[in-house]
Structures are given as structure tokens and as C-alpha cells.
Amino acid sequence: MRQLLREPLVRFIVAAGLVLAVLGLFGDRQTSDDLTIEVTLADMQRLASLYASEAGVAPSPDEVRAIVIDHVRQIALAREARHLGLDQGDIVVERRLAQKMSFMVSDLVEIEAPREAELREWYDSHKEKFQRPAAFTFEHVFFADRDDARIEDALLSLNSGAADDWRRMGDPFILQRQYGDLPPREIVRLFGSGFADAITNIDANAVWTGPIASAYGAHMVRLIARRDAALPEFDAIRSAVEADWRSATTRLQNEQAIGEIIAKYKVEIEGVSP
To answer: DSSP string of 222-266?
Structure first.
């Protein structure tokens, strides 16, 4: 008997019986379909699964009972709110319903496998999406004061080889002192556009250059390597091309389906002539 009670489905059934007993204390059962709240075993399993995913453990029978009672409470209050028209003109409700309808439309969209020629055409007409950006690998010595008297001597010391450890030179820096394969947009985000422009005009060699101003101060910079922007061959990124094609095609078909829904309605905007 104990083993039987450990079975999840049996626990749901037992909990369901207890729920009905508790709810029966609040009033007589109604026979009208509109006043009937049906909670199936599938509903209880779904609610229990949601609880388990959030809590990390399966709910006990008492917890299942509490979950189901809360579910019934939510449905009852929602129905009463609709009966009173409280859902009308509520932008939060409207947005949620529109979102659910959008998800439903998306689920109904079926995308056929693209032809090879179609993918190559997509690649050729959207090359900017697949362009591999330039990237820069560099080291820098930071000075918080752009007019720091140490800057000139530091540059001479760095390029003469007299500096024992460039990492100990300058002032402490809140970010990194070395960066690898950093694209221009990230350099702009981290240091500002002026610094990024200067980096792109430096040759990759062992020479330290500077000072280069940033949003933080001044930097002595040594560009270790640079990779120019390039477009990978189609065959090398075919899967990425197909993924992009599918995403764009799905969005287009979704918008077409939503457009057809909107077209069923007559839209009247006050003060705007049709």
C-alpha cells in the first residue's frame, strides 16, 4: 500500500480528492458549464512539473493540494473578472493575449527545406551579415593623467627594451592590460571611438605607440596582431547561412499570417480619414 501511494499518479488522484473536499466547504457545486472548473490529471501533472522545475524536488501530496487549490482560485477569479468586463481595455491583458496569439501563429508556420541555389542567393544578397569583422590583439600601459610627466620616458623605455616588465609600468587599470582578437565595436565599447580609430591605424609589430587617449586617460599601445575583415566562403558557413535564412523566412511568414488576421478587421482611427 505504501509503495502504491508513492506513485505520482496515485498521489495526484489522492490530492484531487482532498482538493474537492476542501473546495466543497466553500459552497455547493454548480452544474453549469460556465461555473465548472475542471482540473484534469494532466493539469495536475503539469502544475507539479512546473513546481518541480522551480523547487528542484517533486511536490508532496500536501503541496500538490495547495498547488491545485491555488490554480482553482486563479481560474475562478479570472472568470469572475471577465464576467465583470475587467479584461476590457487592460493593456497588460491585451499584450499577453497578443503574445500568445503570436506564439500560436509561429507554431503553425511550416518552413520547407531551402534549395541549395536559394541559400547561395541568400548568402550573395546578405554578405554583410556573414562578414567576419576585423580583430586586434594588443597590450597597453595606462596613465590616468593624460599629461603625466612619466609618459615620454615610459615610451622611450618600452621601445629601448629597458623596461623590465611593462605590466608594472603606469597606473593600475580597472580592465585588462592585454586583449586578444577584439573587434572594433568592442574596442569602441571599452575605450571609446577615438582609441578605436587610433588602434586601426597602427601596424602590428613590436613597437610601442602613444600616447593614445581613451575615456580613462592615456595609453602606450603595442599592437601584437591584426586580422582584416573578410567574408568566409559559402561552404564554410553554410549552416549559419541556412539558420539566418530560416529565421528571416519564419519572421516573414509570421508577419504575413498576422497581416491576414488584421485584414479581417475594419480599423477606424478617430480624426484620420480612411
So the answer is: EEEEEE--B---GGGGHHHHHHHHHHHHHHHHHHHHHHHHHHTS-
Cβ partners under 8 Å of residue 206, min gap 6: 222
Q: Structural domain boundaries of the chain?
A: 2-88, 94-130+234-254, 132-227
What is the rounded average pLDDT of the residues 30-47? 75
The yes-or-no verdict on residue 267 having pLDDT over 80 is no
Give me the architecture of the 132-227 domain, per CATH: Roll (3.10)
Q: Pinpoint the alpha helices (H) of the chain.
A: 2-6, 8-23, 41-55, 61-83, 91-108, 116-125, 127-130, 150-160, 184-191, 193-200, 238-263
Identify whether the C-beta of residue 203 lies closer than 8 Å to the C-beta of residue 223. Answer: yes
pTM summary value: 0.55
**Residue 28 reports pLDDT greater than 60:** no
CA dist., res. 258 & res. 105, Å (int): 8
- Mean per-residue pLDDT for 28-50? 74
Q: At 137, which helix (H) or strand (E)?
A: strand 135-143
Rounded Cα–Cα distance for residues 58 and 15 (Å)? 14
CA–chain centroid gap for 85, Å, is 35
Cβ proximity of 63 and 56 under 8 Å: no
